[in-house]
Amino acid sequence: MQKAIFLDRDGVINSDTDHYYIYKTEDFILNNGILTSLKKFTDNGYLLFIVTNQGGIAKGIYTENDVHILHQHLLEILQAESIQIKKIYMCPHHDSIAPCKCRKPSPYFIQKALHDFHINKNESYMIGDSDRDIQSARAAGIKGIKINSNENISTYCDQIVKGEI
């Protein structure tokens, strides 16, 4: 079975300082340490997944195509560093519009990945900057690590790789 790292996007992979909704490539700034950390995870056999709520789509602030363009931009940056994201799971819904089964804190996307990619729950982690990220991880049966928004995750990466968390 595989081991995996699930990551929230805004506030974990990229900075969300001064922007609540990140959907333009010009507003997309990687957080310090993210490339090094993702490379270290990859080099140590972890599959990488992004699980992101993008409620601005349901609210009409931006489109799914805007998010697709941004994700392609991110994947190109990561590919240049030999980092592969196995899959990006994106919830376009928002509870203020209509409930859904995929919006975090629902474990839906994590559970789907665990099943589809034969992932070992005991060796997998969710890194997020909100309580809903950690609630999603716990509900899926994996370890959740809550960071401060835009925090460098290198320390957590090292601890995970060394088996200290």
Describe this structure in words.
- This protein is α/β, with parallel strands linked by helices and 165 residues long.
- It has one domain (3-161): Rossmann fold, CATH 3.40.50.
- 33% of the residues lie in helices and 16% in strands.
- It is built from five helices and five strands.
- It has a five-stranded parallel sheet with strand order 3-2-1-4-5, with helices on both faces.
- The longest helix has 17 residues, at 64-80.
- The radius of gyration is 15 Å and the shape is globular.
- The mean pLDDT is 97.
Describe the structure in brief.
The protein has helices spanning 34-43, 64-80, 108-116, 131-140, 154-161; strands spanning 3-7, 46-53, 87-91, 125-128, 143-146. The chain has a single domain (3-161), classed as Rossmann fold (3-Layer(aba) Sandwich), CATH 3.40.50.1000.
> How do the SSEs run, as a string of H and E?
EHEHEHEHEH
Note the total helix count: 5
pLDDT average, as an integer?
97
Main β-sheet description: 5 strands, parallel
> Using DSSP, what is the number of strands?
5
- Cα Rg: 15 Å
Order of strands in the sheet with the most strands?
A: 3-2-1-4-5
